[in-house]
Amino acid sequence: MTPNISNNQDHLAQEFRQLETYIARESKIALLKIQSLQFAMKTPEVGLHYQQEAEAMVRQSLFSFVPNTFVLGEIGYYCCAIEN
User: Fold this and answer.
1) Which of 5, 40, 65, 78 would bridge 54 by S-S if both were Cys, CB 3.0 to 4.6 A apart?
2) Is 84 part of any domain?
3) Number of domains the chain is built from
4) How many whole angstroms separate alpha carbon 27 and alpha carbon 11?
């Protein structure tokens, strides 16, 4: 008779790896955006229009407000009961 205990270790490990990969990818994109803005601000040859575009890109993507309910909804907090 097999015990009635479900082991979700493999599933949790895979989910963790996917989340870590996603966070690393998004962090790299954010770093590239910031470096692009720094390059645009330090280089006098870059046109004013490009500087404004780079600044707008950073502000819209990195400094935008996201409500807590949106984040909780994205991770599935409202979809299922909490398992302790």
Assistant:
1) 40
2) no
3) 1
4) 24
CA atoms within 13 A on the CB side of 11: 3
The rounded Cα 35 to chain-centroid distance in angstroms is 17
pLDDT over 50 at 4, yes or no: yes
Domain that holds residue 22: 11-74
Instruction: Note whether residue 20 is domain-resident.
Output: yes
Q: Evaluate whether 62 touches 34 at the Cβ level (below 8 Å).
A: yes
How far is Cα of residue 58 from the mean position of the Cα atoms in its chain? 14
The percentage of residues in the chain with a pLDDT greater than 90, rounded to a whole number, is 10
Residue 20 structure tokens: 């870590």
pLDDT digits (tens, 9 = 90+) for 14-50: 889 999 999 899 889 888 888 888 888 888 777 788 8
